[in-house]
Amino acid sequence: MKNFHYLFLFVLTLVVPTFSQAQDKGLHLKNVLVIGQLDKPEDRYSMEINVTEIFTELGVKAIPSLNMLKLGTDASLIASDSMKQIIATKGIDTYLLVSVRGYDKTFKATSMNDDFNTALGAGNLFPLYREEIVSVSFEFKFFRNGAMVEYDIIKCGNVSNRDAVLKKLRKQLRKVAVKKWK
Predict the structure, then answer these.
(1) More confident residue, 50 or 26
(2) How many CA atoms lie within 13 A of 14 on its CB side?
(3) What is the sign of the dihedral through the CA atoms of 32, 25, 116 and 84?
(4) Burial of 127 (0-12, 13-18, 19+ CB in 10 A)
(5) Which of 12, 78, 82, 90 shows the greatest Cβ crowding within 10 Å of its Cβ?
(6) Domain extents for the chain?
(7) What is the pairing mode between strands 135-144 and 147-157?
(8) CA 99: distance to chain centroid?
């Protein structure tokens, strides 16, 4: 019986550290360059500024891509080697692409694992808000070293105007960032 207790304690010491490491799957976000993939400049600006503010409130060093590019410049310039070097000198190693996925509540996470250049080159068909919609789904793709490391969809329901979309997004984003990304 005594040997059984020792065996049980030995197995427990092997299992508990493995279990606790398995549960620690967060992104551990320390810094991020926020890139809004929206066609309208005012939507892109609003998205980047709101997401950057939330991350900054949570202690994450965040920079909107509009600080790196001139207004109206194509965001695909960020994929160039010279821009990546400039961004790296600012201490940024994580890139976040934010876009509107659609206006339905049934979107599921994609299984696609695009590289950064492919994802950055993808266009976006949807504006931040459309008349007569009730929900908006936002897609968040995190990249490090050119590979996707995290993917999430945040759904904002019961929206009636553009301001309501941004207000709901801020509320949902704060919850998800604390729970999954921080």
Answers:
(1) 50
(2) 6
(3) positive
(4) middle
(5) 78
(6) 32-181
(7) antiparallel
(8) 10
Contacts (Cβ under 8 Å, ≥6 apart) of 137: 100, 101, 102, 103, 104, 105, 107, 153, 154, 155, 156
Cα 122 to its chain centre, rounded Å, is 16
Residue given tokens 């009730």 in the structure block: 134
In tens, the pLDDT along 105-153 reads: 666 666 567 789 888 887 677 888 888 888 899 999 999 998 999 999 9
Give 180: exposed, middle or buried? Use CB within 10 Å, 0-12, 13-18, 19+: middle
Extract the tokens encoding 149: 């490391």
Alpha helix ranges (H) inside 69-181: 81-89, 116-121, 162-176
Half-sphere exposure of 98 (CA within 13 A, CB side): 26
Question: Which neighbouring-strand residues pair with 139?
Answer: 99, 153
Largest Cα–Cα distance in the chain?
75
The string of pLDDT tens digits covering residues 45-67 is 999 999 999 999 999 999 999 88
Tokens of 76: 């695909």
**Is the full-model pTM beyond 0.70?**
yes
Instruction: Show Cβ contacts of residue 66 under 8 Å, excluding neighbours closer than 6 positions.
Output: 44, 45, 48
